[in-house]
Amino acid sequence: MTGMDARDADLKKDLDATLRTRRELGEEYESALVDSFLEKVDQRIDSVVDRRVRRQLAEQQMTAARDSRSPRPTDTFGERFGFGIVSLVLAIPLSAIGGGVAHLPGMLVAWVGIVGVNVVQVARTNPGLFGRRHRTGRDDAWED
User: Fold this and answer.
1) Contacts of 119 (CB under 8 A, 6+ apart)
2) Which long-range contacts link 104-108 to residues 24+ away (Cβ below 8 Å)?
3) Residue 126 and residue 132: Cα distance in Å, rounded?
4) pLDDT for 94-103, tens place per residue?
5) How far apart are the C-alpha atoms of 18 and 7, rounded to whole Å?
6) Rounded Cα–Cα distance for residues 40 and 17 (Å)
7) What CA–CA distances, in Å, run from 87 to 6, 92, 143?
8) Cα three-residue angle 110-88-74, rounded to 5 degrees
9) Which residues of 67-76 are buried (b: 16+ CB within 10 A; e: fewer)?
10) What are the DSSP calls for 67-131, one per residue?
11) Model confidence over 70-80: pLDDT tens digits?
12) What is the mean pLDDT of the chain?
């Protein structure tokens, strides 16, 4: 028997008891018995609504707590270190090619590209580093 079936069975028992009591006591107690039964129904409805409201509030609080946590960086130290090493290793042949083909301007273009790629990587892993605000998904213009 599920929770809802058990509550329905209890409510049916209460109704049966109220009807039996009415038969035993007579019509003069009918309104008092009906009021008593309706009071029990109201209490059950209130308890169900309270339970649902508490559950929804708890879910909202959990969602808000989950959303308020600052996101962890996706890159670990090893990934950043590896990116730097690969970038330096590739800088050697790129510098040689750029310097061999276009001399100093070619080497400068190669190094500007290497530095640019590393700056983009740093900006991606550290969103607030270059003065950009991290987007939280809410409209800050309405806050005091």
Assistant:
1) none
2) none
3) 10
4) 999 999 999 9
5) 16
6) 12
7) 68, 9, 43
8) 105
9) eeeeeeeeee
10) HHSPPPPSS-HHHHHHHHHHHHHHHHHHHHHHHHHHHHHHHHHHHHHHHHHHHHHHHHH-TTTTS
11) 555 566 788 88
12) 82
* Torsion of Cα atoms, 111 then 114 then 115 then 118, to 10°: -170
The pair of structure tokens assigned to 22 is 């009415």
- State the residue for tokens 């100093």: 104
- What would the pLDDT profile of 82-95 be if each residue is shown by its tens digit? 888 999 999 999 99
pTM comes to 0.41
Query: Which is more confidently placed, 42 or 136?
Result: 42
Provide the token pair at 25: 């006591």
**CA-closest candidate to residue 125, choices 83, 97, 68:** 83
Tell me which of 66 and 105 has the higher pLDDT. Answer: 105
Task: Decide: 97 and 110 in contact? Cβ < 8 Å.
Answer: yes
